[in-house]
Input
Amino acid sequence: MTKNFQNSDVIWLDSVDSTNEEIKRRFQELMKPTWIIAKKQSKGKGRNGNVWFSSSGNFSGSVMFFPTVDRSYFHLYGFFFGVALYNTVKKYIKDGVDIRLKWPNDLMIENGKVAGILLESIQSPQSNKTAVIVGIGVNLNSHPNLNADFKKRYNSQCVANFSNHEICQVSFFNKFSNELKELGLYLEENDLASILKLWKHRSYDKGTQIQVSDNKGGVNSGKFLGLDELGGLIVGENSGVKKIYSGDVYFGS
Ligand code: BTN
Output
């Protein structure tokens, strides 16, 4: 699964609207797995139609590759990149600072969101090949001031607030690439489901009170009980145990 994006081309741009959109525009010319990274992004896209604010100095990058796994497993790449992101950011922050992965694809420090992942797929018109695009945004040195509506769900944070120094985009990417490589090697020896085990170790404790919005305006409250074998969220509610496959999690009762 992970050899697909090793040895990718890397293109750095000064500025672009969205690195995911730029990959789609260039898709026909991209012959091999490619990263497009922008020093500044003006129209970043988040999950569920949200905007992703990415000031200059933060990390905005997307990688495109042709997966060898079945479509039904594409979402597992989100967990894979999430674990590598966690391992990378952990190296920058001071000991004792609380850092966790939040389902499905967020990285939180002290309960403030520092990074998010947007997974998309694109079909080549000439062949029936499908490519996956993994877009990653990390608040390295600054974070947006979220409006009250967002703040009800979560706060925003940046890595530098928990580090001793400013964080360079290039060295962050180099460290992240190394983590991806190491995790890739680990997965060559272990089955795919083991990524979920690594993810769970880096997430919230079982029993944490959460709220899950289901993208249709519905909200379920319950206890975080972990992930099932497909990466679905298991929530304990008064009415019983529920599995959720799309939505967003936030905290509170
Ligand atoms: C989310 O948490 O909602 C996902 C945020 C993903 C943002 C990144 S920044 C690089 C790439 N380009 C985009 O337009 N979005 C992703």
In short: The chain has a mean pLDDT of 91. DSSP finds five helices and 15 strands in the chain. The radius of gyration is 18 Å. The pocket of biotin is lined by residues 18-20, 41, 44-47, 50, 52, 54, 60-62, 106, 116-118, 135-137 (CB under 6 Å).
